[in-house]
Amino acid sequence: MFERQIAIPSSEEIVQELPLPKPLAKIKASRDALAKDVIAGRSEKLLVIVGPCSAHEAAPVLEYVRRLGRLNERVKEKLVLIPRIYTNKPRTKGVGYKGMFSQPDPENRENILKGIYAIRDLHIKAIEESGLSAADEMLYPENYAYVEDLLTYIAVGARSSENQLHRLVSSGIELPVGIKNPTGGSIPVTLNSVYAAQSPQVFMYHNYQVATGGNEYAHVVLRGRVDHYGNDIPNYHYETVMQVFEGYHKSEELKNPAVVIDANHSNSKKQYRQQVRIVEEVLQNRTYDADFKRIVKGFMIESFLEEGSQKHDIVFGKSITDPCLGWEETERLILDIADKA
Fold first, then answer.
1. Checking DSSP bridges between strand 208-212 and strand 201-205, what pairing results, if any?
2. Closest CA to 158 of 64, 225, 218, 103
3. Helices 112-130, 22-39: inter-axial angle, 10-degree rounding
4. Mean pLDDT for the chain?
5. How many other β-carbons are positioned within 10 Å of the β-carbon of residue 148?
6. What pLDDT does 90 receive?
């Protein structure tokens, strides 16, 4: 049984009510071009998608992106920094907190309508205060329309990458979409998802039959895998990346070979401090092999103002989901990436 609780206006109505101001839309368009150029190989810069596991409260997220905006001025010749502002992030088992989209106040009950306004306001303010447009996860394809004018990068998670609707909606997005390997780690399945996202599609979306032209900026994100016994197995090492490289080049249909390394999750076994070591190893491999360097386009890093995590929102700027690097460590890491890019 479905109990109707709150009527949600269409995405068109809400975007019209709370639009992205034209000066900020110009900033976003220029940022979109930078990110697409990296994925397409037109730029040798690296993408760094960095920020909290879950954007659970606006004030610390805005403080974080302001700092990131200032840091961007120091590294913009080498890196494209994209704040990670994930507003749909749930807990792993899907019970409890489900992200700002559903719960604008993590300590209170769901209010999706209020959440939609909250995340649009957050993304708009983030661009205004930092000059950086953000990444968000497309956990629910139906929700993407409420933020599609605000984002520069979209992630499809490990539990969603095999879902047909995620693949189809990705095919209609004209931005980089990072598709994570499924939790089982299959590279062929991941490349099939990228192929589906890069291909023209026809499907039902928001009560319409829609047609898409395919998204040539869809690409692979390696986030580690989980074996049958629940053990985390990394896949950021040289051998797996080159397996992806070979998979791309065996297919004549796949465009813009690209891999982004997720330094946390099963790659780090959620040991957040290991992200630094993982990034350093990948950077070293980029100096060793030209093909590895050519295909690795950047990193995903989980980071917030304060390191670690907490169960409840008590410490300002500390994650309430997965543990994160703190700001000082993050700043050092980003400067090091820029130095070695």
1. antiparallel
2. 225
3. 80
4. 95
5. 18
6. 63
CATH numbers and ranges of domains, the chain: 33-340 (3.20.20.70)
Q: Are 232 and 274 in contact (CB under 8 A)?
A: no
Tell me the Ramachandran region of residue 298: left when phi exceeds 0, alpha when psi lies from -120 to 50, beta otherwise: left
Q: What does DSSP assign to residue 204? A: E
pLDDT tens sequence across 85-94: 999 876 556 6
The helix (run of H) or strand (run of E) holding residue 225 is: strand 225-226
Instruction: Using the Cα atoms of residue 329, residue 335, residue 339 and residue 340 in order, give the sign of their dihedral.
Output: positive
| pTM more than 0.90 | yes
Element (H, E) at 56: none
Task: Please state whether 312 falls in left (phi above 0), alpha (psi between -120 and 50) or beta.
Answer: beta
Identify which of 303, 261, 313 has the alpha carbon closest to the alpha carbon of residue 67. 303
- The average pLDDT across 256-278 equals 97
Rounded CA-CA distance 15/8 in Å is 13
